[in-house]
C-alpha cells in the first residue's frame, strides 16, 4: 500500500512541474492546425479530381 501512495505522490509532484501553454499559445496552435487541415483537404480534393478525370479518360 505504501508503494501505491508513494507512486501517486510522485505523479502529483510531476504534474505540478508541467509547463502548461497559455491561452494565446493554444489559440495560435489551434489556428495553425485548422489552416493546415483546410489546405491539405483542398489538396486531396484537387488530386482526387485530377486522378478521377484521368482514369475516366481511359475507362
Describe the structure.
By secondary structure, the protein is an all-alpha fold. The chain has a domain at 20-59. The chain is built from 2 helices and no strands. The chain has helices at residues 2-17, 23-58.
Short recap of the structure:
The protein is mainly alpha-helical and 59 residues long.
Question: What is the topology?
Answer:
Layout: H1 2-17, H2 23-58
Q: Kindly state the number of beta strands.
A: 0
The outline comes out as: elongated
Q: What helical percentage do the residues reach?
A: over 70%
Distance between the termini: 70 Å
Count the helices. How many? 2
Give the integer mean of the pLDDT values: 96
**Beta-strand level of the residues, as a percent range?**
under 5%
SSE topology string: HH
- Weakly predicted, low-confidence segments: none
What keyword list fits this structure?
59 residues; elongated
Amino acid at each position: 500500500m505504501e508503494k501505491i501512495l508513494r507512486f501517486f505522490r510522485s505523479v502529483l509532484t510531476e504534474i505540478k512541474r508541467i509547463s502548461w501553454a497559455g491561452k494565446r499559445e493554444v489559440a495560435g496552435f489551434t489556428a495553425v492546425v485548422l489552416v493546415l487541415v483546410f489546405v491539405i483537404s483542398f489538396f486531396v480534393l484537387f488530386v482526387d479530381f485530377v486522378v478521377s478525370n484521368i482514369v475516366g479518360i481511359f475507362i
